[in-house]
């Protein structure tokens, strides 16, 4: 094959970059030559081709003209060791962060800095989540446990002209293992510290020549590991859980040209809400106070959480002459109850001494805040019909329609921690929301030459939302207070892929994205009003290179991007009470780079490296928010130390020039795997590490609410035998046991949230 000089130069630079990061043990061609000369030589190891469905077709990842990361296989197994929930994805893909203020429920996703810190149960997010082709709109649906999953795909940048909802920041896509026409399965059981017991398994069996069934189950348990030293406390023990989930799929394929896949799934989780810990942050820093004890939580409030979700979907496929027709019908339902002591401590003004757990720290609690949020009503219907070409012609096309219908009700209840028995207060608030969305979308892809392929997509979206908030303070009532929005949008994207040679592709993409108006009404008093943020619109540019190197023993993907969002939806806290307000910033910009590397270092060693840089900025000269403790407390001082530009009123801060919250500039992840034949099996060790730099916890800047940089690692050591049928392994997550403040509550009593401590354990797996 003749390679032009400029192409050779580009591939040489890439190869030099890879070998600098991962020194390979030999030149690419040497093993092939050895194999030709010596029939006993080991076969050449090469990276497997990664197939993704980011563009709704099964394609080589290298041919997809956008920034995509796929997580599967050993890496996915290692990251979920120890019963981790979906937050294990944080930092494991460039530009991806995941966090939660609710614990194992309500995860919040961020891609390239764009996310949403809103903690209301109807919060919308700019990052879409798609599970088995079904959009998961409600935050309560987004934490479904990850088990028996083929692959996770992270699609960065606006999405919407190919499937589902319009997502201005990106999409995270989960694909479960599907039924096949053979008997197979697996079972895993594990145990660890804190009384952790995890079990999962799947059984696949053909029912006939035309039907196959796959049953997948998971059960996770952990004992309480945090305890309340307060006498006569309402809740004494925390952070234990029972989390059970199931998925049953039936594949019916009566003919070669038609298939129907039925999917029924459910989850039942009982545990605790996130622990908000009062007075754990050192004044003037974001350090933990001296003597902090993870296992102790002095509180006078209650804490418990229940989440039940269920759903079903039907995916039909007809292979017609020259085209394929898809119909995807989905239904999802959720019930949620979460109660927590949001003030994070004891007492209403001055509490009794908090004991040796926080020596020397004041026990100041500015007010009593214990609340419960309920989702007593929720259902979601989705319908997508998509028609696509299936020929090998230069011109390929796809067209579809999408419909979304959601109804939710939210109840917010407060409790009186100072009254005997901690009863429910008479006052409470309710919100109802009905949202409907319909869209028409399509794409055209044309192969102009053997090297150049171009694609363009278009989407029209219509969104309607009706919202009503009420507050009841018997005998008085506030409301009903209605909000309504009716918005329309046309978004588009265009991309191109150019093949420098058979192993190297250049790509470029420009895309627009859109998010419908958002509403919330967590009313705190009869005078409060609900808030609404108008629709946001994103414009994104990216370009990059994807290449297989060194005879496919190394692979690299590098992307540079830039975006701007008009009328960016943001969430402002009150600075003193448990409230949110939705606002729009005139503009937000972001730019950065992303890198993915994988390499076979030798017969026994494999490694991967991911990295991203994200520089975001809010640009709105007139936008300001209240800061923590917008009124002096009884000591005459504020709880935190704001550092940004003061706003026009006391205890406010301007947002112009600040980065997006929970958005670290640098993120990296690294894995290294060693495996070697031993006896009749394989001994292996797999370590993974993620690092992120500091970030602001809220929209404004304060010394106490600037999360410190964090490095976390995991290790798994195991042995497989009998051709991989059996496996035993030991694992550790957060092996350095680094504990620090990662989030906070926007009060004036330095209430923080810390990350998970070290988890260790062992697993046994059998495949059949």
UniProtKB/TrEMBL annotation:
Subcellular location: Cell outer membrane
Signal peptide (UniProt feature, chain positions): 1-28
Limits of the TonB-dependent receptor plug domain: 61-171
Membrane topology note: Multi-pass membrane protein
Motif (TonB box): 49-55
UniProt key word Transport: yes
InterPro entries: Beta-barrel_TonB, Beta-barrel_TonB_sf, Plug_dom, TonB-dep_rcpt-like, TonB_box_CS
Domain of life according to the entry: Bacteria
Keywords of the record: Cell outer membrane, Ion transport, Iron, Iron transport, Membrane, Receptor, Signal, TonB box, Transmembrane, Transmembrane beta strand, Transport
Domain spans labelled TonB-dependent receptor-like beta-barrel: 290-696
Keyword Ion transport set for record: yes
Any single Pfam family the record assigns to this protein: TonB_dep_Rec_b-barrel
Similarity-based family: Belongs to the TonB-dependent receptor family.
Record protein name field: TonB-dependent receptor
Species this protein is from: Telluria antibiotica
